[in-house]
Structures are given as structure tokens and as C-alpha cells.
Amino acid sequence: MWLKETNTQERKTLVAAFAGYGVDAFDYMIYTFLIPTLMAAWAMSKVEAGYIATGALITSAIGGWAAGILADKYGRVRVLQWTVMWFTFFTFLSGFTNSFEQLFFTRAMQGFGFGGEWSVGAVLIAEMIQSKHRGKAVGLVQSSWAVGWGVAAIAFWAVYAVLPAEQAWRVLFWLGILPAFLIFYIRRNISDPEVFQVAQAKKKAEGGGNFWEIFSPKYLKTTILASLLSTGMMGAYYAATTWLPTFLKVERKLSVLSTSGYLLVLIFGSFVGYLTSAYLSDRLGRRHCFMLFAACGGVLVYSYTHIPITDSMMLFLGFPLGFFLSGIFSGMGAYLAELYPNELRGSGQGFCYNFGRAAGALSPALVGYLSTTMPLGEVIGLLAAGGYLLVILVCLPLPETRGRDLAQQPA
């Protein structure tokens, strides 16, 4: 087991980042379960529900860019704590809202911290873990998204089982603040990676490391292609996951209990997909793994939403759908970290990943808009398939970086 080859500081960092990203997932995904309740409570349209999701994703992109820049300047661990504090507070505040406009504001504000947490956490793990295990380590942290998503699904079922819907949705938002205290305690035991500290000393002595360097002729092609890679992944993922609970409830006519059951199968597939992809990313290379998961994910999500199938067949397809839909992200943190030098790593990774998040954020709103004239499942499938096709095409000209030493300047 590769974890036995890590030291105490590496394991502490893994635990902290895993827990942080899991909380991140809970705070984001809980909204997707509450869409039907909020639509009924406030007479909110599907378009407005999509706007809330899109607003949070757009601000998360801005937050990711800003956090990456700040992490290059002030340190990974310090900025990571700021982001967790921010998104948990605004998730909690969402439980006090009483209208579409109020919730739009709190979820948009939550997005700033949500986007920043991944950007900084992924860089921290990539720099802390030795190169031969980097893909597996970042993928392991990425798998906590499925854990947070699963906890959100279980919490949704449990709270709705004991409270009326008009109270339950508020309680679920309030729960989003509780894990932050544990995360802060853990992260006080984490220090910035040595490679970052060396880069900081060099930057002070020699200068350099300006954010705008990622758009210089040396890195411009990489920045554009990596941003498009992220756009394809995010657009496909958000089109499916934001609207899938509503699709199952409204078009497949499933009860709340049944919907949670289907989603738990999907989530378990996501968790296994993250871990499998993390291993394959170090074995096959980053690009080949992206293309494999994109091709399989595109076929499956289209099938899941279009082919007339029975409930038992849907349940069976839930596992491979989650496996490929989420697993594709495992190698992303390591890959983006390997594309940029130390002094630009936070800025480059933060920009590319969150550019994709901002562009992909159009998917939930677009699904809501197009579903007024087209079947919801058809819209989800078409947008997801298009996103995965973009991933495959962009991977072809990008370089392979598996095993790259982060102390060395990228070629």
C-alpha cells in the first residue's frame, strides 16, 4: 500500500485536505437535493434554480483564481483556512434565507470559498507528496467529494424523515458549518511544503512569480488548453449532477426515498471511480486516463438519461455512471500542478481549473433554460456528451507530465 511509504507530515496533510474537500462537497451538493422543495416553497422556476447553481459556480471560479494568487503570496495553509471559514459560514447563512434573491446572494458568496478550497488544497497535496504517488494522493483527496456527496444524501433522507420539508431544508444548510471547527484544528498542524518555501525564498531574492506570467508566450498555450480541458470536465459534470436529483424525481417519477437510493449507488460508483482513476493516472499517464474516462462517461450519461430502461436497470447503470463521471477528475490536481513552475503553480492551477468551473457553470442554467422546450433528460445528456468530446480533443496536443519533479522547471 502506497500510503505506508508516506511520512507523518504527508499523512496529516492528506487527512486535512480529504476532510476539507469532503466538507466542500457537502456544502455544495446539499443544494441539489433541495431544489424541488425550494421550487415548491417559493414558486421558483427551474430557470431560477439553475441561476442559483450557476451563480455559485461563477463566484467559485473567481474565488479559485484569487485563492491561487494569494496562496502563491501568503502560503498554502493560511489561505486554505480562510477558504474553509468562508464557505461554511455562507452555507450556514443560507438556512436563514426567505426568497430566491436572498439565496442567490448567499450561495454566490459561498462560491468564493468553495472554489478557493480546491485550488489551494490540490496544490498543497501535489507539492507535499513524492512524485511517484502524486496522482494517487491527489486522487484520494478528490474521492472525498463522493464522501461529502454521500453524507449530503444521507443527511437529506434523515432530516426529511423527521422534519417537515419547510424546516428540513433550513436545517440541512445549517449543518454545513459544523465540520469547519475540526478542519481548522487539523490544519493548524500542517505547514507549507518545502518546495514552496524554497520557491518563496528564491522569489524574494530574484523576483518573479507574477500572476500574468501564465499568459506569457512561454505558458499561454498551456494555459488555454488546460482551461479548455477543465471546461469540458466541469460542463459535463455540472449538467448531470446539478439536475440529476430533479430528473429522477420529476421525469422518472421516483419517491424521495428511491431517489436517495439511486443516488447512493451513483455516489458509491463515484468514490470507487476516484480511487481507480487515481491509480490509473500514475500508471497510464494523465492524458490517457482523462480520455478513457471522458469516452466512457459520455456514453453512459447519454444512455442513463435517454434510453427507456427499467428501475432495476437504472440502478445497475448508476454505479458505472458515477465511476466515470467523477473519476475523470482524480488526475486533474496533479496534472495542473505539474504544468507550472513553483512560483506560478497556485496562480496557474487556480486560473485553469476555475476558468473551467466558470465556463462549466453555464451548464446548470442552460439545462434549466433548454428544459422549458426540451425533455430534461435529453438536455442533460447532450450537454454532458459535448463536454466530454471537448476533453478528448484538448488532451491530444497537451503534454504528458506523469512523474515530473516539481522542483524542476516544466519543459
Helical content (DSSP H or I, runs of 4+): over 70%
Query: Residue-averaged pLDDT, rounded?
Result: 83
Order of helices and strands: HHHHHHHHHHHHHHHH
Number of domains: 1
Quote the beta fraction: under 5%
> Major sheet, described briefly?
none
Can you count the beta strands? 0
Q: Would you state the CATH class?
A: Mainly Alpha
Please give the oligomerization state of what you see: single chain
Annotation field: number of helices: 16
- Shape, please? globular
CATH superfamily: MFS general substrate transporter like domains
Q: Label the structural class.
A: mainly alpha
Distance between termini? 31 Å
Please state the CA-atom Rg, rounded to the nearest Å.
20 Å
**Could you say what the CATH topology is called?**
Growth Hormone, Chain: A
- Show unreliable segments: none
**CATH architecture grouping:** Up-down Bundle
